[in-house]
């Protein structure tokens, strides 16, 4: 049976007559009669008994109706999904991010996306940079947000904004008592540092080298949020990206701007071979808006 036969058969069963079915389908009565006869010949069974100008469904027709109704519901579901594709409904989006953008930026954009598209679903993971690149290249994710450089020929990169390092100290730290914050003195404190490949390490190493300071390595961490926690607990002074720093619990940490701290790009990335869906495009727009809100003074 094809979809047209299913539609006509269901209409006849629903209306109880050829005339009623033709009226439901807005077609001619002879056309419906021909299609029903052809269907009976094709199946090799009588679907209707004709008595006194009326149709009576046979047991075979009623058995067939059960299955036809299942197919019809499936077709309606497909039609509904197709109709709502442009609105992002019934869609899924897989988002990857670096650790610092997973703290506020991506969750805020995700919440707004789901408020706009309540039937959509988002899969989210915070991963190291190399894993983000690997999954995007393999088309196992739709898009990513990264504070570290992403390098591969198939990646389409767009700058959302920029991030900078701030100095993070525990409340009551002695350096905070001075009328003017002594940046060089902060570099001579016990430091919470990062792995050598982290972007933060390159900047901090340059600051130390320019001042001929031998670092006092207290703790090595792999994320800005961990650096914030160490600094808040008094383990050392940390230089933390502002995305991580501003998401940390207020009152547990004092943040001091670093003079002339370099700016690093915050990137949104997707695969050029996998164009973004309506949902993905909306998410990109929300990332721009939420980053602007987070970066706004106050």
UniProtKB/TrEMBL annotation:
Q: Which SUPFAM superfamilies match?
A: Periplasmic binding protein-like II, Winged helix' DNA-binding domain
Would the keyword Transcription turn up in this protein's UniProt record? yes
Q: List the PROSITE patterns.
A: HTH_LYSR (PS50931)
Gene Ontology annotations of biological process type: lysine biosynthetic process via diaminopimelate; positive regulation of gene expression
GO molecular function terms noted in the UniProt entry:
DNA-binding transcription factor activity; sequence-specific DNA binding
Alphabetically ordered keywords of this record: DNA-binding, Transcription, Transcription regulation
**Could you tell me which InterPro entries the record lists for this protein?**
LysR_HTH_N, LysR_subst-bd, WH-like_DNA-bd_sf, WH_DNA-bd_sf
Does the keyword Translocase feature in the UniProt annotation? Answer: no
Q: Which is an annotated Pfam family here?
A: HTH_1
Q: Which PANTHER family match?
A: TRANSCRIPTIONAL ACTIVATOR PROTEIN LYSR
In which family does this protein belong, per the annotation? Answer: Belongs to the LysR transcriptional regulatory family.
The molecule here is called: DNA-binding transcriptional LysR family regulator
Originating organism: Pseudacidovorax intermedius
